[in-house]
């Protein structure tokens, strides 16, 4: 069976924002959908998240779809490199890989450092996942616009700009991202 992963971000809100609708869409297309529940906020770490995803390593193959939100993106880049995994389609939602600081958010800034991506991990992604797309917006309240655009350039992905949808999480009242469905319908 084909597998799709939906990886949430720092607050875990993907699991109750656009995640459920996307899960339904993918299951209707015949995918087994895995939405791991990673530790959130100050409990988030690459090591803790890796231990959870390790249970599903055998599900990664040349037909796998991965959709990652926010800090789930640098996690995914680091994880597939560390485990020599491949996927078919990777869709980043508010994705980034550059280090930056958010004022007054020491918990988030610490996680950014722990999930920091190296160039060899970016290069591995470009060789191991043929189809890469990046959804981003002009009013993201977490990730600066230039960091979002730089990520698209660094991973050589197809940009999907969506005006006015913020960070595409709970605060932005996002319950569905039809752009992801359109990408999957075209590629898979």
Walk me through what this model shows.
The chain is of the alpha/beta class and 188 residues long. The chain has a single domain (2-187), classed as Alpha/Beta hydrolase fold, catalytic domain (Rossmann fold, 3-Layer(aba) Sandwich). It is built from 7 helices and 6 strands, in the order βαβαβαβααβαβα. It has helices spanning 19-28, 46-53, 72-83, 106-114, 119-128, 145-155, 178-187, and strands at residues 2-7, 31-34, 65-69, 89-93, 131-136, 158-161.
Quickly list its features.
alpha/beta, 7 helices, Rossmann fold, 188 residues, globular
CATH superfamily: Alpha/Beta hydrolase fold, catalytic domain
Could you say what the CATH architecture is?
Answer: 3-Layer(aba) Sandwich
* Count of helical stretches: 7
* Class by SSE composition: alpha/beta
Biggest sheet, spatial arrangement of strands: 2-1-3-4-5-6
Helicity range of the residues?
A: 25-40%
Number of DSSP E strands: 6
Encode the helix/strand succession as letters: EHEHEHEHHEHEH
Q: Which CATH class?
A: Alpha Beta
How many individual domains?
1
Q: Strand-residue fraction?
A: 15-25%
Mean pLDDT: 97
Low-confidence stretches: none
CATH topology: Rossmann fold
In whole angstroms, how far apart are the ends? Answer: 14 Å
Main β-sheet: number of strands, strand sense, barrel status?
Answer: 6 strands, parallel
Inertia-based shape: globular
* Rg computed from alpha carbons, rounded to a whole number of angstroms: 15 Å
């Amino acid at each position: 069976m084909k597998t799709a992963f939906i990886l949430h971000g720092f607050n875990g809100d993907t699991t109750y924002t656009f995640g459920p609708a996307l899960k339904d869409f993918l299951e209707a297309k015949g995918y087994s959908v895995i939405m791991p529940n990673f530790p959130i906020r100050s409990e988030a770490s690459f090591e803790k998240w890796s231990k959870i995803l390790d249970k599903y390593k055998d599900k990664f193959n040349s037909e796998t779809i991965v959709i990652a939100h926010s800090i789930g993106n640098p996690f995914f880049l680091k994880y597939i490199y560390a485990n020599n995994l491949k996927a078919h389609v990777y869709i980043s939602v508010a994705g980034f890989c550059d280090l930056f600081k958010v004022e007054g958010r020491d918990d988030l800034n610490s996680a950014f450092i722990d999930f920091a991506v190296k160039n060899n991990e970016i290069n591995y992604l470009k060789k191991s996942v043929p189809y890469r797309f990046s959804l981003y917006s002009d009013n993201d309240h977490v990730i600066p616009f230039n960091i979002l655009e730089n990520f698209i350039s660094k991973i050589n992905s197809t940009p999907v700009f969506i005006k006015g949808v913020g960070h595409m999480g709970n605060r932005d009242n996002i319950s569905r991202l039809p752009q992801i469905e359109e990408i999957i319908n075209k590629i898979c």
